[in-house]
Design brief:
alpha/beta; Amidase signature (AS) enzymes; 8-stranded mixed sheet; 11 strands
């Protein structure tokens, strides 16, 4: 396999511009890698011709954008014109949208090609990529001395596995409650969720509209900055889009944190978290001190309510968003013979939605019902406001916050079957999502079983640069170069 697939986006971009290799060579190398990786189940559909067409435009000089010559993997939540967009669900199987999402359109304008669509938890509801109608994605990583298939995390599991396995140099992800950051940590790559509104939600299949946000996942902090610059920007088609210029995140990268303060929230020291997680967190503090930052203890007192708050608000919004899947206009239609319209709705949703989606829709419908709206949904919204206030007060004392990304390393496929235990995977990631803040996972090291562990950085609103800079400081000091052995 070509050595090109091991290069970062920055290396591919610069090598192409310096004529060390052609865009076609890049595209052909990744197309071949995708074709050989089917046991991972990371791609739901491959689009080699798309990658080659973008490469031809780059080689001929017709495309000169910042991502000219770079093929990417696209999470199956982003609408891609004429290419299957199913959100990992049976109810949308075969749906080929006649339009392009704003984020993928921005990437195309920047010159990127598409290698294919990436597998994911159904409607982004999951933390292990086991709820997909296409079956689970298998992480390229293995525990020492074991060949048990591991989860790459979720919901952006296909995205994470693709970068870790060198079958995409960079990918899009979406993050509602940790779905970029947790999978990035599980497979030893970088992933950033920007401030809510930085990237347009138009053309992204909705899960929870007040939480969903697109972001980038790649091998390095620099690559994440490069991708995010191309993805972000104001979109009048999205009422939540921020009408602000896109900062030059890559150009302003700096690992010098002199004069910066890093907040260490005392509430994130949680009982039951493996000692290796806390040890890495302590090491991360030392790395940031070495970069010039001063650690300060902070308090986020409403953190303990974040997870239950999220699992009221997100299902409530999902129950509303998923009401559009009724078998009338697009996607699956299951019409029982002799049945009426209600029977078609019921049969279509029963057949088209998986168990986890049904569970969340039912929870959401319950908390929005007349007798429970104030008791659950209204109260959750008030607690969300308090969580946001906690962060605002914390950022009066610090410039960035450091925590672990996830409470464990990757677990085996089928090992976690209790939904509540699965939801706990998001315990460190959810508070930043509820507050709409930028947050990033950067690989910090390996656990005793040889699996990656991530460090989690949370920034103040619109301060992606601080998050990226702190991430770069950790990246330089951690020196994380471990990669999974090729077995597929």
């Amino acid at each position: 396999m070509s050595e090109l697939i091991a290069k970062s986006i920055a290396e591919l971009r610069d090598g192409f511009r310096n004529r060390e290799f052609s865009a076609r060579e890049i595209a052909e190398s990744f197309n071949a890698a995708v074709a050989s990786s089917k046991p991972l189940n990371a791609y739901t559909v491959a689009t080699p011709d798309d990658a080659l067409a973008a490469a031809e435009a780059a080689d001929s000089g017709k495309s000169t954008g910042p991502l000219a010559g770079i093929p990417l993997g696209i999470k199956d939540l982003f609408a891609t014109k004429g290419v299957d967009t199913t959100a990992g669900s049976k109810i949308l199987k075969g749906f080929k949208p006649p339009y392009e999402s704003t984020v993928t359109a921005n990437l195309r304008k920047a010159g990127a090609g598409m290698l294919g669509k990436l597998n994911m938890d159904e409607f982004a509801m999951g933390s292990s990529n086991e709820t997909s109608t296409y079956g689970p994605v298998i992480s390229p990583w293995r525990r020492k001395g074991s060949n048990v298939g591991l989860t790459p995390g979720g919901s952006s599991g296909g995205s994470a596995a693709a970068v870790a396995a060198h079958i995409a140099p960079g990918v899009t992800g979406t993050d509602t409650g940790g779905s970029i950051r947790q999978p990035a940590a599980f497979v030893g790559i970088c992933g950033i969720k920007p401030t809510y509104g930085r990237c347009s939600r138009w053309g992204i299949v909705s899960f929870a509209s007040s939480l969903d946000q697109a972001g980038s996942m790649a091998k390095t902090v620099r690559d994440c900055a490069i991708l995010l610059e191309a993805m972000a920007g104001f979109d009048p088609k999205d009422s939540t889009s921020l009408d602000l210029p896109v900062p030059k995140w890559e150009a302003n990268l700096s690992s010098n944190l002199n004069g910066k303060r890093v907040g260490i929230p005392r509430e994130y020291r949680i009982d039951g978290v493996p000692a290796e997680i806390n040890a890495l967190w302590d090491q991360g503090i030392e790395w940031l001190k070495d970069a010039g930052a001063t650690p300060v203890e902070i308090s986020l007192p409403h953190t303990k309510y974040a997870l239950p708050t999220y699992y009221i608000i997100a299902p409530a919004e999902a129950s509303s968003n998923l009401a559009r899947y009724d078998g009338v206009r697009y996607g699956l239609r299951d019409a029982p013979e002799g049945g009426n319209l209600d029977a078609m709705y019921s049969a279509t949703r029963a057949d088209g939605f998986g168990a986890e989606v049904k569970r969340r829709v039912m929870i959401g419908t319950y908390v929005l019902s007349a007798g429970f709206y104030d008791a659950y949904f209204t109260k959750a919204q008030r607690v969300r406001a308090l969580i946001k206030q906690d962060f605002a007060k914390a950022f009066e004392q610090c410039d960035v916050i450091l925590t672990p990304t996830a409470p464990s390393a990757a677990f085996g496929i089928g090992e976690t079957t209790d939904p509540l235990a699965m939801y706990l995977n998001d315990v460190f990631a959810v508070p930043a999502s509820l507050a709409g803040l930028p947050a990033m996972s950067v690989p910090g090291g390996l656990d005793g079983q040889g699996l990656p562990l991530g460090l989690h950085l949370i920034g103040n609103e619109l301060d992606e640069q601080m998050v990226l800079n702190a991430g770069l400081a950790i990246e330089e000091r951690a020196g994380f170069t471990a990669r999974p052995d090729k077995w597929w």
